[in-house]
Amino acid sequence: MSTIPPTADAAAQPPINPTVPDNIPLSERPPRTRRRFAPLKPDVPNYTNAPRLKGVVFDVDGTLCQPQTWMFSQMRSALGISKSIDILNHIYSLPPAESTLAMEAIKSIERTAMHQMVPQAGLVPLMKYLDSRSIPKAICTRNFDGPVAYLREKHMPGILFHPVITRSFKPPKPDPAGILFICGEWGVKGSEIIMVGDSMDDMAAGRRAGAATVLLRNEVNGELVGHEFTDCVVGGLAELAGILERGFEEVDRSAVEGVGEKEREELK
User: What percentage of the chain's residues is helix, strand, coil (to nearest 5)?
Assistant: First the structure.
């Protein structure tokens, strides 16, 4: 499995290919035009002269496999933290010995969940479709490498993802560094790819990297459907293949009711 070696901190990472300086608050960035990519099906006209899609990055938990939301409540219980506290940020803030113990505690929960993974419907057909259209695929997840390897070997044998960004790469999503590293490896800009995920971390990381974002809707992420960071919403992976065949187009935000001011402030 192709993975990125651990990095001690952001400064130690390999060079990345930023498209937008990340120190500029999202609220102060220039307005974006609606994102579009040309149809991947050769005989579908590209009426808008949209650029070609050059890669797709996937989250793992809740995206390539079905959501296992119970994991996160168990992790927070094991760590003694509330829902408002980011699990990985909390672990990284602990003294080294405590951080090691805390990380092993959540890995134990993830190992249990690993054996209960259920692949999303349409997973393998979508990957084979992207391969047939010569679209590179990569993974960017906050999970550690064990469950990622298990999912690939058990449910997607022989399917190539490169690079594979796991927890050993820092900083994790919602920081865009992992996605931008992938762009650097592919030799493309963030604006030339799509980030597919099911969480705010995925949508925020994708937006900050300059990528178009696709939300895989489920029963617990409905608040993200109309969010400003979400460019497209699908109910299943098979739906994404159909969209890419016809040509990706960001949702018309003038026809979608925006989110509240409180939600916007939390994500700045």
Answer: 40, 10, 50
